[in-house]
Write a structure and sequence with these properties.
The protein is mostly helical. It folds into 2 domains: about 5-90, no CATH class; about 90-360, no CATH class. About 65% of the residues lie in helices and about 0% in strands. The chain has 15 helices and no strands. It has helices spanning about 5-20, 30-35, 40-50, 55-60, 75-90, 95-125, 130, 140-145, 145-175, 180-195, 215-245, 255-280, 290-315, 320-335, 345-360. Helix 3 crosses helix 15 (about 345-360), helix 9 (about 145-175) runs parallel beside helix 14 (about 320-335) and helix 12 (about 255-280) packs antiparallel against helix 13. The mean pLDDT is about 90. This is Tricarballylate utilization 4Fe-4S protein TcuB. Keywords: Membrane, Plasmid, Transmembrane, Transmembrane helix.
């Protein structure tokens, strides 16, 4: 079967080898899913690639790994296919190559430009608010009125939702639009929440030695649940504002503040851990040509979390204005770049897990 990219063709070759061997079938979800097929379309391979959590266990267990002439490197090849799938399904098509090549520079640049624009606009129209906004009872809105903030960030958030939905729909269509039931979604949610397959088959994840010292599962948990807590803080603050008429900034002991602090800590600890883990990760296990996209996404999460915590600590000082501009620039950039970076890997992986749960549920049981 012909494939659209060299990475997909290599993945097809490796799946043929692995289907003949099946030594690694108990390590993760990829190999049981692979065993249901004898030939693989591009959609099948993209499904398997997004099902792979890149734990690296199969690379260390494989007797055909380099320097063997078969050169079997499943995690590295599927990482390449997976990264290329983010660009392939991105909407609109014109944005596909940008963040893959220059993700870090674009993300940081957009954040700084947005922050400088906000500061420049305030300096031109109300210069006293630049370093004196903390003296205003409605300090958060001295730099940018509430309605303007809602309009700008609401539009960016809506665009993100549309673009991510279009990419997810294209991915789902490519993997065959399986009829997934409620129990399949429940299983996929549980697997995703636990990062069930980022554990090397129960032994932990390996890197360049025989010790399961890879802590990416822990750092992912900090990051993911930190993000959810920040989302909960924003949602609760919205209810406070529109339902009860309680306006920001909120006291330290308030619900939005406590959720935001906990989430911000997660978005600092998790991304720092992920960046350190990425520095020590074997190059053979990662995708080539997409480092900017991956690092840019992690840095944006870190910047959002760190600037949010700084606002909480220094929000009653003259630094409120510059910090708020930086935080708003980071959040806006995060929304705008989400459909074109590593953020979508969580959604595509969830969809792959839901299809896998469905496939395992309806798979024929082998006779004893």
């Amino acid at each position: 079967m012909s494939h659209s990219t060299p990475a997909l063709a290599e993945a097809d070759r490796l799946m043929t080898v692995c289907n003949s061997c099946r030594y690694c079938e108990g390590l993760c979800a990829v190999f049981p899913a692979m065993e249901l097929k004898r030939s693989f379309s591009d959609g099948d391979l993209n499904h398997l690639a997004n099902l792979c959590h890149n734990c690296g266990a199969c690379y260390h267990d494989c007797q055909f790994a380099p320097p063997h002439e078969f050169a079997v490197n499943v995690p590295g090849t599927l990482a390449q296919v997976r990264a290329e799938s983010y660009a392939h399904y991105a909407c609109p098509k014109a944005a596909r190559p940008l963040f893959a090549r220059h993700g870090t520079a674009l993300a940081i640049g957009m954040t700084l430009i947005t922050a400088l624009f906000i500061l420049g606009f305030v300096a031109a129209n109300e210069p006293d608010a630049l370093l004196g906004s903390h003296l205003n009872d409605a300090s958060f809105y001295a730099l940018m009125p509430h309605n303007a903030m809602i309009a700008l960030f609401g539009a960016a958030f809506l665009w993100m939702l549309i673009a991510v939905f279009m990419g997810a729909r294209a991915f789902w269509h490519d993997v065959g639009t399986p009829q997934v039931g409620v129990t399949d979604h429940a299983q996929a949610t549980l697997d995703a929440a636990q990062l069930r397959y980022l554990d090397g088959g129960g032994m932990g994840c390996f890197n360049d030695d025989d010790q399961p010292t890879d802590r990416r599962r822990l750092w992912h948990h900090f990051t993911f649940y930190g993000f959810l807590l920040c989302l909960a803080a924003t949602s609760l603050a919205t209810i406070y504002h529109y339902v009860f008429g309680w306006h920001a900034p909120y006291a330290w002991h308030s619900g939005p503040a406590l959720l935001g602090i906990a989430g911000g800590l997660g978005l600092v600890i998790g991304p720092i851990g992920l960046l350190r883990a990425k520095q020590g990760r074997m190059e053979e296990l990662g995708a080539q040509g997409f480092r900017g996209m991956e690092v840019g996404f992690i840095l944006m999460l870190l910047l959002v979390g760190a600037s949010g915590l700084a606002l909480r600590v220094l929000g009653e000082t003259a630094l409120l204005g510059p910090l708020l501009a930086l935080h708003l620039g980071a959040v806006l950039t995060f929304f705008l770049t989400m459909p074109y970076g590593k953020f979508v890997h969580g959604l595509y992986r969830y969809l792959a897990l839901s299809r896998h749960a469905r496939d395992m549920r309806i798979a024929p049981v082998p006779k004893p």
